[in-house]
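haha ok so turns out i had the wrong file open the whole time. this is the CORRECT one, sorry everyone. sequence first:
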Amino acid sequence: MLKLDSVCTRYGNIYALKGVSIHVNEGEIVTIIGANGAGKSTTLNTISGIVRSVSGSVFFNGADITSMPTEKIVESGLIQVPEGREIFPLLTVYENLILGAYLRKDKAAVAKDVEYVTGLFPRLSERFKQLGGTLSGGEQQMLAIARALMSKPKLLLMDEPSLGLSPIYVQNIFSVIKEINKEGTAVLLVEQNANMALSVASRGYVMETGKIIMEDKASNLLDNESVRAAYLGI
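then structure:
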């Protein structure tokens, strides 16, 4: 479904990605774990076309999207939930959701999907007319994920969904990640909470200074002594 082949990305003269090769199969949850500055967010931004690689290739559903404009990547069904949520603070919850479906013409189905995402996040239906900027951090993260789901993604890229959230919101967010995956959406998850990420993923990659240094089943990474010591605090 998604394949990165020897991707290198740089900021000025500094390489953030150094020959990254990963893949995500249909129906999988795959996670990338690593320390701050390892290149995890740059990987997602390179896939989305927000930053451009200087070499290597990115393929999605068999098409080379390496140089494809970001809006075309979105149209293809590859959607990113950015770090920091990036909701529209001066628009209501409902308006944020509808903007997530801006490429869709099927109004009846869009209305149905508003019901679906607010079923996943009941708190949002209570806040329909509230401005996005007045929501709590956890509610804003819910809104960011729900807005992304309104576009009917085939693959959802999630960048640090638990960042800055209380434990109860973290549990909620990860329950929803499992639920949307169960319904057929593949997920590529970048997450500092390595324990939570590996507990929901089928496979994982460990990234260090712009390189993938390890790939395995998530359960094996959870049991790996060096991973436990470096990323799980065990």
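The longest strand covers residues 14-24.
again sry for the mixup
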